[in-house]
Amino acid sequence: MNVSNPQSSPVFSKLAISLSPLYLSAPAAVELVQSIGLKACMAGIAEFIHADFLRWEDFDKSARVANHSLDGVIELMPIADDTTYSFKYVNGHPKNTAMGLSTVMAFGVMADVATGAPLFLSELTLTTALRTAATSALAAKVLARPDSKVMALIGNGAQSEFQALAFQHLVGIETVRLYDLDPLASAKCMANLSRSGLDLQICDSIAQAVQGADIVTTVTADKSCATIITSDLIEPGMHINGVGGDCPGKTELAASVLAASKVFVEYTPQSRVEGDIQQMPDDFAVTELWQVLKGQKSGRDHVSQITVFDSVGFALEDFAALRFMYEAACALGMGERLSLIPKLSDPKNLFGTLLKTGLKSDGLCVAS
Amino acid sequence: MNVSNPQSSPVFSKLAISLSPLYLSAPAAVELVQSIGLKACMAGIAEFIHADFLRWEDFDKSARVANHSLDGVIELMPIADDTTYSFKYVNGHPKNTAMGLSTVMAFGVMADVATGAPLFLSELTLTTALRTAATSALAAKVLARPDSKVMALIGNGAQSEFQALAFQHLVGIETVRLYDLDPLASAKCMANLSRSGLDLQICDSIAQAVQGADIVTTVTADKSCATIITSDLIEPGMHINGVGGDCPGKTELAASVLAASKVFVEYTPQSRVEGDIQQMPDDFAVTELWQVLKGQKSGRDHVSQITVFDSVGFALEDFAALRFMYEAACALGMGERLSLIPKLSDPKNLFGTLLKTGLKSDGLCVAS
Prior knowledge:
The structure is a homodimer of 368-residue chains.
Chain A: H1 10-14, E1 22-24, H2 26-36, H3 38-54, E2 65-68, E3 73-80, E4 84-92, E5 106-112, E6 118-123, H4 125-143, E7 150-154, H5 160-171, E8 175-179, H6 183-192, E9 199-202, H7 206-210, E10 215-218, E11 225-229, E12 239-242, E13 251-253, H8 255-259, E14 262-265, H9 268-274, E15 287-288, H10 289-293, E16 307-310, H11 315-332, E17 336-337, H12 352-355
Parallel strand pairs in A: 1-6, 7-8, 7-10, 8-9, 10-12, 11-13, 12-16, 14-15, 14-16
Antiparallel strand pairs in A: 1-17, 2-3, 3-4, 4-5, 5-6
Helix pairs in contact in A: 3-4, 3-11, 4-5, 4-11
């Protein structure tokens, strides 16, 4: 097992273009993560995201395309460099859980830019949770105080354990204080993390969870302009990892919190519309994370500064995660092949595929 | 076999939302078309497209999202009404044929708007050829002279036979005059159509093919500002079905041809960028096809008018085609199920999927 090349995609260059993309199902992705180990997976994805963020200028970027409906949104997130293209399909339907469905479901495709041939179709529901947590940790490593040990985790739903573990293993967090409107969610999160080695505390209020925390992570799901975090809760030196506010009309942080903080985003044109900064004027100053990672701009300027990572999720993170999962699946021999594209002996003779085994005799044409 | 409800999607409403979308592979789509018959398939798809064009205002529409590269383009084409969402992935790489690959490869997904759950993943390479020809024929039925019998077919590549047969069966064309720069392409097209009942003539020049034709169909593939059809070739009363000019820098008709014609498009914001009308001023008058189909605007105004359908392919046509293929596959019991989305007993417990069968003991967490 060798998934250790975050800088490039050597697997692609070695592969003859196949018209049968590799398919990684949801159960296969679980098996893959179990084989590699969750910690190694999150570290690997974080490494790939980091490497791709350093190549920011190489990418053809755009804000995602969203179709909004009454109860949710369906989005497509395409991105490409000179050799590789990817997109993610992802929904956001907070009321789904009441029906036994996930709020967020996703899948994605990676394709060859030179020919347009799809190379990889993968589940991205689990993978999105991994890459979101990896991105949060990557940001916190350059934005939070280096001695951060205690994290408040507000919202204990599907994303929460991944956030806790990414911060434990990639940032060095030792204590996680859990809060959710639904006590069952906190209990579930606590149970899932019981053997993690984290010191876990269930709190009765947001204020209790946040007080004295080094990092505050918000991963709530309601599609509403909520103010989970108000400025009276904030202490000097805190880093706020705002993950749940990620589409128009869905926020978590009070405007006064943003105004008092140095705010970092992924891709400004998308974050202005979808992030917590949708509450702020268009010229509200933000710094893009890649600029900090690349050393072009400063992250945290002093120990008592309040920093906010206003995360919405950007296509480049999925590009990197797909790249990691593809290399891992190839290395482990996992996944199966799909006949998604017709195989033609003469590419100008698409019609010939209909003739080979005989068309129904409807007076149109009959196989020779 | 009953695929006879172009007005709505009854199959969806009857289905409990499944997290295992139906998958129709490229070979399965061939089998489906062979089972139903090509003529019935094209007629059915045309009927579904017609029905959806009449509901034009019901759709959340946008121009497709394109990632351009040196040799081609990869596009995503999303669209949704209140209940159903769809998108198509499609590339355009004219140099692919030299490598034995298709110029155009496509697949698509249909999803449930209320929950975001994907319902159907289908090949769309063959299906795109069917829906493009069906749309062309649908437009010609309201734009060409009703007595049209002779069609010039310029460009005899992968799309050509589908165009010929759609015009034969849906418009009443009896004679097709073939021209391609590559004589082998014309020979292939002629051979494929040999039992169609069409009177087929291979021509030595575009001028020879076009002279006296009632309808001129252009389906060339070069990504260049070509002028396949110049105004000296055009005769009063002709209908031009311009299919090949479909992205920036890819045109087929001389500007003077457009200036002398009444021009019809699918979705104006997209056609201004991608269609042959990209050569014309932004205020160049065009009529949208749905307006003619709905009786809101006139099509051909008199027998000697020159009409142009400046077709680029619009997401609504794929929406309708996916709907047809889905209903047909369900009715025929074709396709298989993909586990693309995790099945969770508790949707807030995505992490639990990793625990069920035991995580690798990497110090992170171990299954109970």
